[in-house]
Design goal:
Structural class: mainly alpha
Number of strands: 0
Order of helices and strands: HHHH
Largest sheet: none
Strand content: under 5%
Distance between the termini: 48 Å
Length: 121
């Protein structure tokens, strides 16, 4: 049976990391759009910002995607541990944490940094 060789990226780096970045930005924005209590709101705000930043950095250093895996686990744990103003907000956070977790596990290849032709000596 022929398949993909081991450790072969199977998805487009930009598309996968764009989805991951969008999830982080949505999590950040949802902090202000959905009713949240103090500590939960700050944690969600911070995790969303970090996920989006790590997704951008993971375009060039794919191993950084595992930071988002850890942040997804943290978000899920805080969703279970801390009380939320509404159950549907807790469900939202758990769902987004699961989506970030899955997307962060998708292996991609790094993008190459290219210098403009004028900068090459």
């Amino acid at each position: 049976m022929r398949g993909l060789p081991p450790f072969t990226p199977v998805a487009s780096s930009v598309r996968v990391r764009a989805v991951e970045m969008a999830l982080g930005l949505w999590l950040f924005a949802s902090t202000f759009l959905l009713p949240r209590d103090g500590g939960v709101g700050f944690s969600t705000w911070l995790v969303g910002l970090w996920v989006a930043t790590n997704a951008l950095l993971a375009l060039y250093a794919p191993f950084l995607r595992f930071l988002d895996t850890g942040l997804a686990v943290w978000l899920f744990a805080t969703t279970l541990w801390f009380p939320h103003a509404h159950a549907w907000v807790a469900f939202h956070d758990a769902f987004v944490a699961g989506a970030i977790f899955v997307v962060s596990l998708v292996k991609t290849s790094p993008l190459e940094l290219r210098l403009p032709h004028d900068a090459v000596a």
